[in-house]
């Protein structure tokens, strides 16, 4: 992998993953939000500028409420952020695909922890993006397998659903941007993603 691509995957994975995973008022998310509030963030990030995505990412009114509705509840989550919901026949969290991911992490002795107080399944969209960044930095030889077998198998389905959530414009924009970024990852890494059945 070229160092420039390795660095770009690390940067984009960390920025996007932080916004999907952390609550908007957290210190981690606030730092990233300040980056996206710059007029030239797309140029700095090296992505194709999009007026629609710019407008949606600027929709930060009631951002905590948007995050609550997208990731926590209490209403049913239209776009659940966990991979096993899409890949497991019973659409449950902590499904078989998560167990396979955990086996992959154990096999390669990857200890990835954000030292958080709550126990989130590792196949959360935000954690998967952060883990992609971690692998790009620390275990780049494992990145292609991780992406093709454990992440890209379901990420497009999740991002499709999330990008349709017009009631939550910031996260709709975040999903659209992530679609664009992950497409470049796949093209640059020449990844072949197996076809799977979605159960949601």
Automatic annotation (TrEMBL):
UniProt-listed Pfam families: Nitrate_red_del
Lineage per the UniProt record: Bacteria, Pseudomonadati, Pseudomonadota, Gammaproteobacteria, Pasteurellales
Encoding gene, per UniProt annotation: dmsD
Keywords tagged on the record: Chaperone
PANTHER family, per the entry: CHAPERONE PROTEIN YCDY (PTHR34227), TAT PROOFREADING CHAPERONE DMSD-RELATED (PTHR34227:SF13)
Record bears the keyword Chaperone: yes
Organism: Actinobacillus indolicus
Domain of life: Bacteria
Coiled coil (residue ranges): none
Record's protein name: Tat proofreading chaperone DmsD
């Amino acid at each position: 992998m070229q160092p420039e691509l390795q660095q770009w995957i690390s940067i984009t994975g960390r920025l996007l993953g932080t916004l999907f995973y952390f609550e908007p008022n957290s210190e981690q998310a606030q730092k990233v939000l300040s980056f996206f509030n710059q007029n030239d963030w797309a140029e700095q990030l090296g992505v194709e500028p999009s007026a629609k995505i710019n407008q949606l990412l600027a929709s930060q009114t009631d951002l905590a409420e948007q995050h609550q509705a997208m990731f926590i509840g209490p209403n049913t989550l239209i776009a659940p952020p966990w991979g096993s919901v899409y890949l497991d026949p019973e659409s449950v969290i902590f499904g078989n695909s998560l167990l396979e991911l955990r086996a992959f992490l154990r096999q390669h002795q990857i200890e990835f922890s954000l030292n958080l107080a709550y126990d989130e399944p590792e196949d959360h969209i935000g954690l998967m993006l952060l883990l992609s960044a971690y692998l790009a930095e620390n275990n780049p030889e494992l990145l292609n397998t991780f992406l093709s077998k454990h992440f890209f198998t379901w990420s497009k389905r999740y991002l499709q659903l999330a990008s349709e959530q017009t009631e939550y414009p910031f996260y709709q924009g975040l999903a659209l941007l992530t679609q664009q970024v992950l497409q470049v990852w796949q093209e640059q890494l020449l990844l072949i993603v197996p076809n799977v059945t979605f159960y949601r």
